[in-house]
Amino acid sequence: MLNLWACPLGLHQYEASDNFNPLIARVLQSIRVLDVQTEASTSFYASKDDLLHRIRIPEWQSWLEFLIDSIAKTARHANTGIWPETSEDLTVEIVGLWCQFSNLGVHHDVHSHGNCSWSGVYIVQVDPDAQRQMHEVYKECNGVTRFYGPHFQNLAGAAIDYGNAYLQSAHLDISPYEGRLAVFPSWLLHQAMPYQGLKDRIILSFNASIHRKGGDRWADYAQS
Predict the structure, then answer these.
(1) Closest CA to 136 of 87, 56, 196, 192
(2) What are the two backbone dihedrals, phi and then psi, of residue 111, each rounded to the nearest 5 degrees?
(3) What is the dihedral of CA 11, 62, 102, 185, to 10 degrees?
(4) What digits encode the pLDDT tens for the residues 124-161?
C-alpha cells in the first residue's frame, strides 16, 4: 500500500512576536496611511511586494532571519531523501514580501503563487482565538487560512460513494495566531476566509526561491 504525494506545510512560531508584532503593526500602519490605496477601502489594504528592503529597523532584520531559517527548515524536511546530503550551500531568496490588512468580512479568494517554490503567511495581528470564533456567522472559520489539497480539484462533478470517502478531506484550516508562520508550497491552492473582528487582521506574506551554489540541478539525467 502506497500513500503517494504528501503535501508539506511547515508551521513555525516566532518567539519574539510579543515585542515584534506590535512594533511592526505600527510600521505597517504608517505605510498604509502613506499609500493612496487606502482611499478606496477602509476594510482592506495590500502593500506593494517591496517590504523586504523598504523597512529598516533592527527588529525587522531579526524577523527576516527567523523567516529565512523557517523556509530553509521546511524545504529541507520536504526534500528529505531527494536533496543530496551535501546540500548545505543553500540560498533562500525572498522574491516578494508584502502586508495585508482586512476586516468587515473581507476575504481573499482561492489562488496559488507563481515564479517561486515556497510561499507563506505570518500573522502580525488578529483577534484572540476565543474572541475570533465568537462571530455569529463565520465562527471558527473567521479569518483562517484555508489550504486545498490535490484532491480538491477532483470533487466537482466526481462520483461519490463509500469507496472514495478519502476524497472528502480536501482542505485544511490553519487558525491565525499572532506570531504564527505557515510555510507552504507555492503551487498549493489557498484562500483567506472572511474575517471580522475588533482588531484588523494584519499579515505578512512572501514568495521565496531556494538555490544551491553552482546550480539547481540535483540529480544526473536519466539515460532512457
Answers:
(1) 196
(2) -160, 170
(3) -40
(4) 999 999 999 999 999 999 999 999 998 888 776 677 88
Task: Examine the pLDDT at 176 and tell me if it is beyond 60.
Answer: yes
Residue entry with cell 478531506 = 169
Q: What is the C-alpha to C-alpha distance for residues 156 and 145, in angstroms, rounded to an integer?
A: 21
Could you tell me if 171 and 146 are in contact, meaning their C-beta atoms sit under 8 angstroms apart?
yes
Distance from C-alpha of 165 to C-alpha of 147, rounded to nearest angstrom: 19
The reported pLDDT for the residue numbered 65 is 98
CB 98 within 8 A of CB 46: yes
pLDDT in tens, 181-193: 999 999 999 999 9
Q: How many CB atoms lie within 10 A of CB 149?
A: 17
CA distance 64 to 165: 42
